[in-house]
Amino acid sequence: MSDAFSSQTALVLxxxxxxxxxxxxxxxxxxxxxxxxxxxxxxxxxxxxxxxDRLVDGIKGLHADxxxxxGESHTLSIPTLAAVSETALTRDVAIAMGADGLPNTFVxxxxxxxxxxxxxxxxxRGITHIVGGMCETDYSGYPDCRDDTIRAMQAALSxxxxxxxELHTPLMWIDKAATWKLAHDLGGDGLVDLIREHSHTCxxxxxxxxxxxxxxxxxxxxxxxxxxxxxxxVAAR
Length: 237
Hints:
The chain has one domain (about 10-235): Rossmann fold (3-Layer(aba) Sandwich), CATH 3.40.50.620. Helix content is about 45%, strand content about 15%. It has helices at about 20-30, 45-50, 50-60, 65-70, 80-85, 110-125, 145-160, 175-200, 220-235; strands at about 10-15, 35-40, 70-75, 130, 165-170, 210, 215. Keywords: ATP-binding, Ligase, Metal-binding, Nucleotide-binding, Queuosine biosynthesis, Zinc. InterPro entries: QueC, Rossmann-like_a/b/a_fold.
């Protein structure tokens, strides 16, 4: 455990996916107390939110101290985000590349909104550490996942709320194979198996087909990244 954080509380953006579950374990290994926050924004894959309870129950069984560190679980509903966006994550349309070079799964402003609401909740609860699974190493090209964006948000939130927030992005500079490895380093085979069985990544919300890396359609960008990372992780073991 890092001495710098060992007596402090963190708020983890916890969607129920692979990345956020890994980030939750990362926070539990460093902070004295950890709360979680999920968002219901009209996403097609809202099934991810249903995965959180099973993931939390499983995580509690991996390390005795993790169970005692886990605090409140929060869910915020932001239906306006879907109302103002025309994307493949909030509409029943085919996933494709847009004219701007970004996939139409990009929800403009999503992470900016998430971090703003997370900081507002953290402010009320006296928390200054916020953990998110943003990554610009092995991702779909979303501009609000870039490190520059996160650093700018940290500055803006700290200035705007007169409180020194620290935004932690432990996955920012690692690829999906390294994310699987990080999960193993943090929680062993138990955490890896928990993520494979109970986390959700598929943009289409598909939970019917099970693959060696977990459930999903196997073809959307999120599934493709997760599957590719899994293959590389297994090959390197």
